[in-house]
Amino acid sequence: MSLHSPPLPDEAALYEAALRYLSRFAATRTGVARMLERRIKRWSRMMEGTDMDQAALPDAIHQAQQAARKVIERLERSGVLDDAAFAAARTSSLTRAGRSRRAVAAHLVAKGVPPELVAQSLPDNPELELAAAVKLTKRKKLGPFAVERTTPTPQARQRALAAMARAGFDGRTSQQALGMEREEAEALLETLRSGI
Fold it and tell me: Domain named RecX second three-helical: which ranges (predicted)?
């Protein structure tokens, strides 16, 4: 006995799915496209063993993919989906959290932000980069925020520099952040909170 096939995800259904997704997550064009593509693939897997003509399945999938593209264009036209706004907001929040320019860029690329928007959203501001590095030292209790504020051993200093490098900070910025006095570091963090 064959099962009845679930309805093809049409433009209206995909639009509703995209709105539900965007109400829960900040997303890029690419992120929404990936989500809609997963929904279409899930539907096509459900078609196996149903009464749907399997020869018509590729056309139905293509039709759903076209509907998904229309949904994305509609969301962009209405301003609900805006990669530039996503990149700016995410850059700001990640920088305040102590992420380096490199780490922020990698995050944006992974989320599907186009390279030109990644470049536009990352301010070339050494003071902001230093403030983000200091934020990392506070989170990891390094440099000015070390539990015991003594002169670090060469091994401890190397471990701290390695932690900063893994986070994407260059050597000069890392050394500057690690070498600050606590009061100076706290003042710099205050400027980061207020949005340099």
Answer: 82-122
